Amino acid sequence: METIPEEFKIVVADDSPIYRKLVEDTLAHEQYAVVSAKNGRGAIALIAAHQPAVVITDWEMPDTTGLQLCEQIRRENNFYTYTILLTGNTEKNHIIEGLAAGADDYLTKPFDPGELLARVAVGRRIAELHRQIQAKNRLLEELALTDPLTGLPNRRALEEWATRELKSAARHSFAFWVVMADLDRFKSVNDTYGHDTGDLVLKKFAEVLRANTRSSNICARVGGEEFILVLSHIGKEDALTATDRIRRCLERERFSFRGSTVNVTASFGISGFQGETATEWTDLLCQADAALYAAKRGGRNRIEFASELSVEPATIAFNG
Ligand code: GH3
Ligand code: MG
Ligand code: MG
Ligand code: MG
User: Fold this and answer.
1) Exposed site from 76, 112, 215, 226, fewest CB < 10 Å?
2) pTM for the model
3) Which residues constitute the domain of residue 186?
4) Average pLDDT, stretch 243-253?
């Protein structure tokens, strides 16, 4: 027997107990999860609670009409609900009005059970298609924000997150540190051991970053061998300690390739902000980049703070 996915639910709305029973009995031939309401208001509550794939609604009901129900479903639901109007009125105008209000289909009373089941099956196909498209869209959105090699958020995801978080940092006056990391002499790793090996190093470094990122913060891969970590709610000394933990973690790591062992290091540049007026995200990036450049010039495998930290000195002294 065909198994119906558990989520395939149908809400039936009719003020007539006889018609409710007729529809329920018809649907009982299939393994649908059916819940019924005896008026429009009850149906609205059931739809919100169950997110059904199909709604079968009577037209005339004492509170909300089937027409109003269809309109409300189209207006408010962010999941697709296939609606079938069950109406005693066979006039064309009536039917046109129902479809215009958002119904997908209609059936006139008294209905033929086989026809109702066939139309519900159509609704099921359409509703499932909508759900598949929604799921695919969600996946695509996620992919568009993820770096495929490391699984870390990409530059776009970082930017979206950071611009939001920066506003919050200004509003609540918490410290916001941007740590830019770049693997040292990474080109020579690729040149010596091959691109695949380079990829393994990138993945390992991503793991180290992820393991050292609190859930309220973010780490992202923003370029070939460039990563950005945002640290918030901590003072300068703690930002330094956290970054140095990452630096040492990578430094300790030994990568074995075709009989030889190699270690890889990274350099870090940190910019920061705390206050009531947010520094622009792009400015923080420039400052972190300049600090990173200083770390490279200073010998690599080290951390430099930006010279123009927009963190109030009192905060640094207090935390440091
Ligand atoms: P520096 O210490 O100054 O940063 O030197 P570097 O060699 O790391 O810097 P450079 O910018 O010259 O080279 C970066 C290298 O990163 C070049 C490229 O081969 C490598 N790279 C970029 N993206 C990827 C990737 O996705 N996979 C691998 N394996 N290598 C990559
Ligand atoms: Mg009625
Ligand atoms: Mg680089
Ligand atoms: Mg590099």
Assistant:
1) 215
2) 0.76
3) 155-318
4) 96
